[in-house]
Amino acid sequence: MSQSTVRAIVTDIEGTTTDINFVHNVLFPYAYAKLPDFLCENAEAPAVAEQLDAVRRDMQDPEATLEAVIATLLHWIDTDQKVTPLKALQGMVWADGYQRGDFTGHLYADVAPALRQWQAEGKALYVYSSGSVQAQKLLFGYSDEGDLTPLFSGYFDTHIGHKREAAAYQRIVEALDLPAESVLFLSDVVEELDAAQQAGMQTLQLVREGTQAGTRHPCVTRFDEIHL
Ligand SMILES: CSCCC(=O)C(=O)COP(=O)(O)O
Ligand SMILES: [Mg+2]
Fold first, then answer.
1. Which of 46, 58, 149, 180 has a Cα at 20 to 30 A from 113?
2. How many CB atoms lie within 10 A of CB 107?
C-alpha cells in the first residue's frame, strides 16, 4: 500500500468492521423469524411490493404466491445468498429490531477510533457491503459505539454490482471521482480484494479471529495497525 496517497477508504462490513457471528447468529436469524409476518402484513406497501416483484423475477415465476416467495426468501437466508431484493427486505425487518433495542450493530473495538482518526485526517469514508444501504446505515447508526453515520460520505450495496466483480469497484471509483489508486478497500474476503485490485484500488485484508490470511494482499488483524 502506498500510504501517503490514500484519499478515500471503502470498507466491507461482515468480517471487517463487524464479527461474522453477529451477522450470522443475530441478524440472519432475526430476519428469518420476522420476515414471514412482516411480508404478510406489508405485502401491499409499495416499497415491499417492489421487492416481492423482484424476487418473483429472480424465481422466473411472475405468478408466484406470497407463500412461495417467502419460502424462497427463507431458503436464500439459510444459504446466505446475496440477492438484492432479499437484502432490501432484510434491511426493512432489521430496522424494527434496531429501533426496539433488540440488538445493536456489532463493531470491533478498534473500528470506531480508527474511523474517527481517518476522517479527522481528511480521508473520505465509504461502506460497500452486500447488505442494503438501509441495513448499513442501521448497523452504523445503532452501533455498539453509538451513531457513527456522520463519519461516512456514502454507502454502496449490490445495486452497484456484486462484490467479487471488478466492474463494481470501477463504478465505485467513478462515483467517488478519485483516481482508483487513491482509494483503499478493506475486506476479509480475498476474492473481493482481487476484484478491487483489478479496478486499480489499493487493498488490505482484515484477518479477524477465526479467518485465514491469504497471500495476495497485505494483511492486518485490526484497524489500528493501518497507518495512512
Ligand atoms: C449491512 S449489515 C448485514 C450484512 C449482510 O447482510 C451481509 O450479507 C454481509 O455482507 P458483507 O458484504 O458485508 O460481507
Ligand atoms: Mg466481509
1. 180
2. 21
